[in-house]
């Protein structure tokens, strides 16, 4: 391996007197936190996201323009159209990436230098990632146990998020919201404040190697300042969260209902109260794939008995989904990360809800319906439930029962095989939708097409909510 070119704590140019990447504040150790941290070393994982259509649009535009789309991936962010005002769990992170494209004339000197680096390393992003992890694990072998044994599809998420956050360092409110959520989510990995220095040094090491053509001391100083700021926000948020919430929850499977050959409805009982909002999701780790976390949406609004429900579809060769659908049984214990996601109902308005759910994407839609019912509102809710075949409409009976109970709810099943009609096309035949907020959940193709269709029928982007597109591979078909 090439000798790392990173700087050390002695010669850093970082501002804060605490030195290179050293957090300014250290969280106080709370009772039990040491045990929790050491348990946390066994596992890893984090929370998810959603994005606004504005993000999707910008990514596509960049892709079309042949530019690399360096975005914090699925696990990250989107800017919620309207924030829920509920005081319960924190909303999902806002996207630092393309939500608010920074204009060159407004960029700070550090942001300019950071973007210069990004442009240089973008064509070799994969090499930067490999080198970053190689540096991290060679220099800090103790950190290896925090990460999954196999780091294939997800390994670029950390670095992408870092680079994206750095790129948007000028967009403070959006960035802080995102990073706070990220910091809280990192507690379940067993991440501690001192780990941030290690990651920062290896980040600079990898960047300085692959951006060597443009690298100079001022650029390095810009990265140090930026990384220090980013990591401090995460560290502070994690420390604050430690005072009020566990790093993760254990949850025992109490019911496992195989609804189709590849879809199971799992009901779990968390070991302590789990606060969340309808429309959100959790990261889930199974005992069979330690440190591998995947996101699953809550299929019910919060229940009085505290139980949580997930709808899981086993995807071909999928690790976690197959374990949950085909292997797990009542009595098995999962781990849950904190709730995340902004696809929640805004109870301060009386707008209608236009909901598109494809495959297991019906799960959070059902939770939203229950949420509206619970609040006693009589706002119109129109659900379009899409599937390839009748057989795949595994939850239609429940949805129809809800429709019978609630006069403000309308449920329409759209079966591709019969009508040769895609879910998004169907909404064009109904409406008008001007007084509606739109919610989409399902496979990425459905969300992309759905967003286009919704915009075409006049729903503005800021009134369209959905979870992150990139990670939704298993959410239905
Ligand atoms: C916010 C959110 C909510 C979700 N909610 C649900 C839900 O309620 N129910 C549900 O069943 N699923 C849901 N998902 C999808 C879920 O998180 C997992 O992605 C899915 O279960 C597959 O995980 P796995 O470990 O089984 O598959 P993996 O082992 O990750 O991969 C399975 C196969 O898919 C490929 N693959 C993996 N990721 C991608 C990708 N991003 N793009 C293209 N190919 C890929 C792999 O190469 C592999 O061949 C949600 C995802 C997100 C982001
Ligand atoms: C500013 C610093 C950091 C940023 C922006 C960042 C960002 C991310 C992101 C976006 C993910 C994807 C996880 C998900 O959303 O589910 C991730 C995963 C992870 N991060 Fe970080 N991270 C940072 C620092 C650290 C540090 C200091 C550690 C500890 C060594 C760490 C350990 C992990 C682990 C173990 C994972 C899981 C990896 C996996 O699932 O493959 N991160 N990080």
UniProtKB/TrEMBL annotation:
It is an enzyme of class 1 (oxidoreductase). Residues 1-104 are annotated as: Disordered. Residues 95-104 have a biased composition (Low complexity). Its cofactor is heme b; FAD. In the C-terminal section; belongs to the flavoprotein pyridine nucleotide cytochrome reductase family. The keyword Magnesium does not apply. Keywords: 2Fe-2S, Iron, Iron-sulfur, Metal-binding, NAD, NADP. SUPFAM superfamilies: Ferredoxin reductase-like, C-terminal NADP-linked domain, Globin-like, Riboflavin synthase domain-like. InterPro entries: Cbr1-like_FAD-bd_dom (IPR008333), FAD-bd_FR_type (IPR017927), Flavoprot_Pyr_Nucl_cyt_Rdtase (IPR001709), FNR_nucleotide-bd (IPR039261), Globin (IPR000971), Globin-like_sf (IPR009050), Globin/Proto (IPR012292), MRET (IPR050415). Its EC number is 1.14.12.17. The lineage of its organism: Bacteria, Bacillati, Actinomycetota, Actinomycetes, Kitasatosporales. PANTHER family: NADH OXIDOREDUCTASE HCR (PTHR47354), PROTEIN RFBI (PTHR47354:SF5). Residues 105-239 form the Globin domain. PROSITE patterns: FAD_FR, GLOBIN. Residues 246-346 form the FAD-binding FR-type domain. This is nitric oxide dioxygenase. It catalyses: 2 nitric oxide + NADH + 2 O2 = 2 nitrate + NAD(+) + H(+); 2 nitric oxide + NADPH + 2 O2 = 2 nitrate + NADP(+) + H(+). Residues 1-12, 23-32 have a biased composition (Polar residues). Coiled coil: none annotated.
């Amino acid at each position: 391996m090439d000798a790392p070119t990173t700087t050390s704590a002695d010669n850093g140019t970082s501002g804060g007197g605490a030195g290179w990447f050293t957090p300014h504040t250290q969280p106080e150790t709370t009772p039990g936190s040491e045990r929790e941290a050491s348990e946390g070393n066994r596992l890893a994982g984090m929370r998810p996201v959603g994005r606004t259509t504005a993000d999707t649009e910008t990514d596509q535009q960049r892709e079309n323009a042949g530019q690399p789309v360096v975005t914090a991936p699925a696990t990250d962010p989107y800017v919620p159209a309207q924030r829920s005002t509920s005081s319960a769990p924190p909303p999902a992170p806002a996207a630092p990436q393309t939500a608010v494209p920074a204009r060159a004339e407004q960029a700070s000197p550090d942001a300019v230098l950071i973007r210069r680096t990004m442009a240089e390393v973008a064509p070799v992003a994969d090499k930067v990632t490999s080198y970053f992890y190689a540096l991290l694990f060679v220099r800090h072998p103790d950190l290896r146990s925090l990460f999954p044994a196999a780091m294939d599809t997800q390994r670029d998420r950390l670095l992408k998020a870092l680079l994206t956050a750095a790129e948007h360092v000028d967009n403070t409110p959006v960035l802080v919201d995102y990073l706070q959520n990220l910091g809280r989510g990192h507690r379940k990995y067993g991440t501690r404040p001192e780990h941030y220095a290690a990651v920062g040094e290896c980040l600079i090491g990898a960047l300085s190697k692959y951006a060597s053509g443009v690298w100079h001391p001022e650029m390095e100083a810009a990265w140090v300042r930026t990384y220090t700021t980013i990591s401090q926000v995460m560290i502070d948020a994690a420390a604050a969260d430690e005072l009020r919430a566990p790093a993760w929850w254990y949850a025992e499977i109490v019911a496992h209902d195989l609804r189709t050959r590849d879809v199971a409805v799992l009901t779990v009982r968390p070991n302590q109260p789990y606060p969340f909002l309808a429309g959100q999701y959790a990261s889930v780790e199974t005992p069979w794939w330690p440190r591998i976390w995947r996101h699953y949406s809550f299929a019910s609004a919060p229940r009085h008995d505290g139980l949580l429900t997930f709808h899981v579809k086993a995807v071909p060769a999928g690790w976690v989904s197959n374990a949950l659908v085909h292997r797990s049984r009542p009595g098995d214990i999962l781990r849950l990360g904190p709730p995340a996601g902004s696809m929640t109902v805004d109870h301060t308005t009386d707008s209608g809800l236009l909901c598109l759910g494809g495959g297991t994407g019906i799960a959070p839609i059902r939770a939203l319906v229950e949420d509206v019912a619970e609040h006693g509102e009589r706002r119109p809710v129109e659900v379009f439930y899409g599937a390839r075949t009748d057989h795949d409409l595994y939850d239609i009976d429940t949805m129809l029962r809800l429709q019978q109970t609630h006069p403000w709810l309308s449920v329409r099943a759209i079966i591709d095989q019969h009508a040769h009609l895609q879910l998004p096309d169907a909404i064009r035949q109904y409406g008008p939708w001007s007084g509606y907020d739109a919610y989409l959940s399902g496979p990425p193709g459905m969300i992309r097409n759905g967003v286009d269709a919704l915009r075409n029928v006049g729903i503005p982007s800021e009134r369209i909510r959905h979870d992150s597109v990139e990670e939704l591979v298993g959410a239905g078909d």
